[in-house]
Amino acid sequence: MKANEVLDMLKRRFPNEPEYHQAVSEVLGTIEEVYNEHPEFEKSNLIERLCIPDRIFSFRVTWVDDKGQVQTNMGYRVQHNNAIGPYKGGIRFHASVNLSILKFLAFEQTFKNSLTTLPMGGAKGGSDFSPRGKSNAEIMRFCQAFVTELWRHIGPDTDVPAGDIGVGGREVGYMYGMYKKLARENTGTFTGKGIEFGGSLIRPEATGYGNVYFLLQMLKTKGIDIKDKVVTVSGSGNVAQYTVEKLITLGAKVVTMSDSDGYIYDPDGIDREKLDYIMELKNLYRGRIREYAEKYGVKYVPGARPWGEKCDIAMPSATQNEINGDDARALLANGCFAVSEGANMPSTPEAIDEFLKARILYAPGKAANAGGVSVSGLEMTQNAQKLSWSAEEVDQKLKDIMANIHEQCLKYGTQEDGYVNYVKGANVAGFMKVAKAMMAQGIL
Ligand code: NDP
Fold first, then answer.
1. Which of 226, 296, 313, 336 could disulfide-link 331, Cβ–Cβ 3.0 to 4.6 Å?
2. pLDDT confidence of residue 420
3. In this structure, which residue's CA is closest to atom 3 in ligand 1?
4. Which residue has the CA at smallest separation from atom 5 of ligand 1?
5. Best mutation site among 238, 300, 376 for ligand 1, i.e. most ligand atoms within 8 A of its Cβ?
């Protein structure tokens, strides 16, 4: 099957999965040229095998809420591709979770993990369980019930889950605790664990820090200094918090953060003390970003995203499809010259077209947010060796990996006129490695 026929086939066979189609379409649109240079790929129907997940597990998760009522949710694990290493990818708990979203994330993860240079395949999992408003005890019971089903499909050399939206250190801890009890092993089959039981230093920071390191690489190609640049960030969870932390350290001015209810605009910039407040608000009290506006007397815009605010750089760090064509045009009209994606697929295809047309620095999530899974890979190495590395050591390795990913994007994405198409660069680099590994291992 030819690359351009695959999307039609997927739409026919898997209708009603728009996010999955969107992710596949974005990759196919950029790899066609290299794919066609390798007739052996088509002979072995490589592209179809690469787009359809190896397998999907779905299961019912039953748990008891604080009122004693029995609740059910759906749980899933999509094991997409393990050509270059064990399946690896986060777990998402959010009311919107469905198979389309998890298939898009697992597909993206496969290319992202390939880019990291570490031996990891691609996977993703999750549940339509919403942690919002749940007590700590309810979260724990849910995590335990979820793993009671999931545990038989994962293991240190088969499939290693981690966090994602709605799953942070607390949830990973509860899931790993239950996993250990059932599997009777202590081999670290989750990453993002607490530092006391096999977690890696810098893992919580890795996605946000890594995104800023990637941004610095892009800015360097233009000789631009990050200092005093105005940055809009969306989200206020794990990725957003550590993106903002690193930006503050480097002297940039972050003027927005958001959650699913709205965004705050702070013209003076979010400083260290204000970020500490947000971290406490979000990680401890599970509050709303609106409360920041009330505390510091700044603007709060309910039901909106921050892309209409003037900025030099935008770093979407909340969720998929949070920048549409209009948002992209608003950013560009306000002078934004760089977009670096902390979230997965936050820009719609129309928004991506706008960024590329305007020839700004635009880093897709699979390159820019690969720092998280990279340090997860380093956590796996530390667990296998049964030792831990210092924060400085991990941070340096993270910087090196992000620089390496940037190099690969330059290699495969630099156009004849000198413009770097990071979308193409990341997709081609990620694809070629997985494709070669699949070819070498025969028709499976
Ligand atoms: P968190 O759950 O810690 O934070 C998510 C943030 O995004 C919250 O502020 C949340 O608001 C907001 N959000 C979630 N869903 C929506 C929505 N539908 N509309 C608007 N806002 C929303 O998740 P992470 O920070 O871990 O993940 C953020 C993004 O980064 C995701 O796309 C994830 O896939 C990606 N990512 C995460 C990695 C990681 O290491 N954690 C690694 C690579 C990518 P609210 O509190 O109201 O729900």
1. 336
2. 98
3. 237
4. 237
5. 238
